[in-house]
């Protein structure tokens, strides 16, 4: 008959998830054992697993009754054994293979005494037959037996450690330090086996094993790669080449001994990739070779890694010489050129390598994870550690405590960060302990979460409590990551309430410099101006600036970002919505910071139109021309003076330029849509200004009605819907007198309106100028500014050259009288899209003109490889190629009859005039170069057709194109590749070579 204690209902209440299996297992143990152990099993991470593993262990023992009596008589032993079996399947499997090891957990001192490192080392050496007292201990047990014995002994010591950790509140620091000592002893024993393999020649060299990373910092995980660096020196009289060969053999064998899989499993991988030159470099170097590398070639991340360097095995005196050699270089790393960029790039690489499926469950690398804490602590150490030796501890929590004591981290923040890091590392330990596998991903399935939660002490609602606590600590880490670096900077210039850190101005300057501000003194002055006083505005600024400073620092030009923010803040004064919007709508603040730290062009627009900050929270898609024209005309109608009316039109244009620029900078607007948006905005501006100019001229001449109808024809990139930020508006003016009007009066009126339009748009103002260029008209600058439709017809019929027909390919009548616009296009269509194509003589002439352009138009001193318009494979090359195809074949291919380059190229591809691969190359290059050209103007604030040489400007261009910090050279190489491929297509298609 079933007893109440082992009923399914009671077992469920006690935490068993498989009640039938539990009843069977309890029956195997017998009623007495079941009665005494049931309550203890209920306190384990997974009672069902603990019970099943206990039964397996009992069946592996010759006399299980002894173990069961001991467990019933000794609650401490029972909790240690059952705690391990419930939390770690891997250690349960180990006990099933080596059942005698359960006796290790009967040690009454296990809960109170941490084994000294020398004792752990000695035990590991003895199992391989090496003398712990020998300066160069060498294994004597046969090789295969020694490798297996090392694994068994490692698991035996790990079993004791895990039992103490799970049931005696060992604490993160002690557990991690003991794991590090165990790793150091294992490396020593593996080196002893390696010496046996190498034989007598092992005596020719001194070899030291330097632990890096968590092992070096005395904070190792249960399962982790053990990062090491090897350093050697020949013994006196030994040849250097022979010593290098022997040292490499010893290091290689050590790596294999620890990492190979045998019948007793594996221990952990030994990773030597943090050595100079990484995988490409020699496995071991002498002190002199290390010194030469670190002084000349090492990058910032290598010095950051050396923060935790510690000799752990082999010749410890040699290892200490190595540490003393690199220490001065480590503590001057923050002053090296490129420190900030290298640090940011390293963090970005870490984040980029997180698999998308794991990003939200990543305990180590994800946002608010362990690496955020470690990076924060290490960066603060590198910035301030040169002057303050007290903060140089290699252990994260010890370093954080010293930073807090030293005033570099606020006390409350230090405590909160310590608690978050301790929780995250403990959770990491529990995850890894289960299977003894290297993982940092929190499982998502309920059984695993339930086991983890219970192993962390959450016996009630373990899943919900674990998830809630984890989410809390992630939020804290994200919040404190910002606060640690940026809020203390305000203490150097403003009195902050509470117990925040009080950085001196000198320390603040040093920190700002390390975070990427090139002029930290000026940055401090901006901070002082923004935060001084006791007004509501200053209080909000003090709350906003820590986050804003971080976002500026993540941009290519933090100094410009902060300065621009100050200018905008001052221009808006006490405007209530500005700071409230930034405080309450996070997206606006992050977008504003990115724009200000990247683009002088957009910053200048914001300084002149600070109300545009509101727009950053809206859709940034370009608006339609009709809506813009209506708004411009309405704004102009409220002004009595033509110049004021046009200033109102230009204000709308300025705002919309900001919308387009911001969408471009934030990668929300495609390059084709940028060109189309700028072209539509120009349409609306010209339409509204034409109306204002016409009214002004009629008022001056006291005319009730206009004597002629006017239209504006877009030409060039404007006609092709491909304007960039710095483009002029190339146009033709066409008019047609109304019936009964005097022809001379009509012509005079048309010229006056055209000149007035150009004058009004050229007036000095606070917005980028819109230069209206009519030089593509018949006879150029020497010809009349405006012509009638019949005059254009007569000129083109008699005098037109092939280059004028080519220019008309992009004619798009967009502004003014609709009927006149339509008839102008009907007039020029036969000229630009000839039914039989152009003659071979005209093809030759087009190529001749292009050759002259290539030779004569490139500005003096410009690099033909990086000039965006006239360079090899640049915009002119691609556009002339497409235009030649249009003039030759548009009579046969209707799709070629368009002013736009990319649609024309697509039509040429579909018609077989360009093959698929060549068309794809031209399209990609055109889009790429157009994006770069726009980006250069956005960055520099003024148009340029040359890739910038200034490193910060080039980095900003790379940023707009989607490259990360430190990747501007990759951007340049990609640009050269695109244009080189495009030039090869141009040679084949345009030049037919």
Automatic annotation (TrEMBL):
Signal peptide: none
GO-annotated biological processes: regulation of glutamine family amino acid metabolic process
Pfam families cross-referenced by the UniProt entry: GlnD_UR_UTase, GlnE
Region named Adenylyl removase: 1-489
Positions of region (Adenylyl transferase): 497-993
Example of a GO cellular component annotation carried by this entry: cytosol
Keywords from the UniProt entry: ATP-binding, Ligase, Magnesium, Multifunctional enzyme, Nucleotide-binding, Nucleotidyltransferase, Transferase
Family statement drawn from the similarity comment of this UniProt entry: Belongs to the GlnE family.
Protein name: Bifunctional glutamine synthetase adenylyltransferase/adenylyl-removing enzyme
């Amino acid at each position: 008959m079933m007893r109440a204690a082992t009923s399914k209902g009671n077992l469920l209440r006690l935490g068993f998830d498989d009640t039938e299996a539990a009843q069977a297992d309890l029956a195997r143990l017998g009623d007495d054992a079941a009665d005494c152990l049931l309550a203890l099993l209920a306190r384990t991470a997974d009672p069902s697993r603990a019970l099943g593993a206990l039964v397996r262990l009992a069946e592996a023992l010759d006399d299980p009754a002894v173990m069961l009596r001991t467990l019933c008589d000794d609650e401490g032993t029972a909790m240690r054994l059952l705690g391990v079996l419930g939390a770690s399947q891997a250690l349960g499997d180990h006990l099933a293979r080596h059942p005698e090891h359960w006796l290790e957990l009967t040690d009454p001192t296990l809960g109170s005494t941490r084994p000294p490192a020398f004792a752990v080392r000695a035990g590991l050496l003895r199992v391989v037959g090496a003398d712990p007292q020998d300066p160069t201990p060498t294994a004597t047990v046969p090789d295969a037996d020694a490798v297996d014995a090392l694994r068994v002994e490692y698991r035996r010591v790990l079993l004791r450690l895990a039992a103490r950790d799970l049931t005696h509140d060992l604490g993160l620091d002690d557990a991690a330090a003991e794991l590090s000592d165990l790793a150091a002893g294992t490396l020593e024993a593996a080196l002893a086996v390696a010496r046996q393999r190498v034989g007598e020649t092992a005596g020719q060299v001194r070899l030291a094993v330097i632990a890096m990373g968590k092992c070096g910092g005395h904070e190792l995980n249960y399962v982790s790669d053990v990062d090491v660096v090897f350093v050697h020196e020949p013994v006196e009289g030994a040849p250097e080449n022979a010593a290098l060969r022997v040292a490499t053999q010893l290091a290689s064998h050590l790596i294999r001994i620890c990492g190979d899989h045998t019948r007793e499993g594996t221990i952990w991988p030994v990773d030597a990739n943090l050595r100079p030159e990484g995988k490409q470099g020699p496995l071991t170097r002498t002190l002199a070779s290390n010194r030469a590398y670190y002084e000349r070639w090492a990058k910032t991340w290598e010095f950051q890694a050396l923060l935790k360097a510690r000799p752990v095995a082999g010749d410890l005196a040699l290892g200490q010489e190595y540490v003393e050699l690199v220490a001065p270089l480590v503590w001057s790393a923050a002053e090296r050129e490129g420190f900030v960029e290298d640090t940011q790039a390293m963090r970005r690489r870490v984040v980029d390598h997180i698999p998308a499926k794991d990003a939200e469950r990543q305990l180590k690398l994800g946002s608010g994870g362990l690496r955020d804490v470690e990076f924060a602590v290490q960066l603060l150490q590198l910035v301030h550690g040169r002057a303050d030796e007290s903060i140089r501890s290699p252990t994260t929590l010890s370093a954080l405590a010293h930073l807090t004591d030293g005033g570099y981290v606020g006390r409350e923040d230090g405590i909160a960060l310590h608690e978050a890091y301790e929780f995250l590392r403990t959770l990491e330990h529990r995850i890894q302990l289960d299977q003894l596998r290297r993982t940092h991903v929190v499982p998502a399935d309920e059984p695993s979460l339930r086991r983890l939660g219970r192993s962390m002490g959450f016996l009630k609602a373990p899943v919900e409590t674990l998830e809630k606590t984890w989410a809390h600590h992630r939020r804290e880490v994200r919040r404190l990551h910002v606060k640690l670096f940026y809020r203390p900077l305000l203490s150097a210039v403003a009195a902050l309430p509470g117990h925040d850190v009080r950085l001196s101005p000198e320390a603040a300057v040093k920190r700002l410099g390390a975070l990427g501000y090139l002029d930290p003194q000026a940055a401090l002055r901006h901070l002082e101006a923004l935060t001084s006083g006791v007004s509501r505005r200053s209080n909000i600024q003090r709350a906003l600036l820590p986050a804003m400073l971080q976002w500026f620092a993540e941009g290519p030009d933090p100094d410009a970002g902060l300065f621009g923010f100050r200018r905008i803040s001052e221009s808006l004064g006490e405007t209530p919505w500005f700071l409230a919007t930034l405080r309450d709508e996070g997206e606006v603040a992050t977008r504003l910071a990115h724009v200000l730290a990247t683009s002088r062009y957009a910053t200048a627009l914001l300084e002149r139109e600070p109300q545009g900050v509101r727009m950053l929270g809206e859709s940034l898609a370009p608006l339609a021309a009709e809506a813009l024209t209506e708004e411009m005309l309405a704004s102009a109608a409220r002004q009595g003076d033509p110049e004021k009316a046009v200033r109102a039109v230009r204000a709308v244009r300025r705002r919309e330029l900001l919308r387009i620029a911001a969408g471009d900078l934030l990668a929300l607007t495609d390059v084709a849509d940028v060109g189309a948006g700028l072209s539509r905005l120009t349409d609306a501006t010209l339409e509204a200004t034409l109306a204002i100019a016409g009214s002004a001229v009629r008022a001056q001449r006291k005319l009730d009605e206009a004597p002629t109808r006017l239209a504006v024809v877009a030409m060039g990139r404007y006609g092709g819907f491909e304007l960039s930020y710095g483009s002029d508006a190339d146009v033709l003016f066409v008019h047609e007198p109304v019936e009964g009007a005097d022809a001379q009066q009509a012509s005079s009126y048309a010229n006056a309106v055209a000149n007035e339009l150009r004058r009004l748009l050229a007036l000095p103002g606070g917005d980028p100028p819109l230069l209206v260029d009519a030089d593509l008209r018949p006879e150029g600058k020497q010809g009349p500014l405006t012509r009638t439709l019949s005059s254009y017809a007569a000129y083109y019929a008699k005098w037109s050259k092939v280059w004028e027909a080519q220019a008309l390919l992009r004619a798009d009548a967009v502004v003014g009288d609709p009927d006149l616009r339509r008839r102008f296009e009907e007039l020029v269509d036969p000229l630009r899209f000839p039914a039989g194509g152009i003659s071979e003589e005209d093809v030759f002439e087009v190529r001749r003109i292009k050759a002259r352009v290539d030779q004569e138009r490139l500005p003096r001193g410009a690099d033909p490889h990086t000039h965006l318009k006239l360079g090899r494979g640049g915009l002119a090359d691609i556009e002339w190629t497409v235009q030649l195809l249009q003039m030759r074949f548009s009579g046969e291919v209707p799709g070629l009859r368009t002013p736009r380059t990319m649609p024309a190229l697509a039509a040429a591809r579909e018609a077989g005039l360009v093959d698929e691969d060549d068309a794809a190359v031209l399209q990609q290059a055109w889009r790429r170069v157009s994006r770069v050209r726009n980006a250069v103007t956005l960055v520099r604030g003024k148009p340029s057709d040359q890739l910038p040489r200034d490193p910060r400007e080039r980095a900003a261009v790379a940023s707009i194109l989607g490259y990360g910090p430190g990747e501007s050279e990759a951007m340049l190489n990609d640009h050269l590749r695109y244009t080189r491929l495009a030039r090869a297509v141009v040679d084949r298609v345009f030049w037919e070579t």
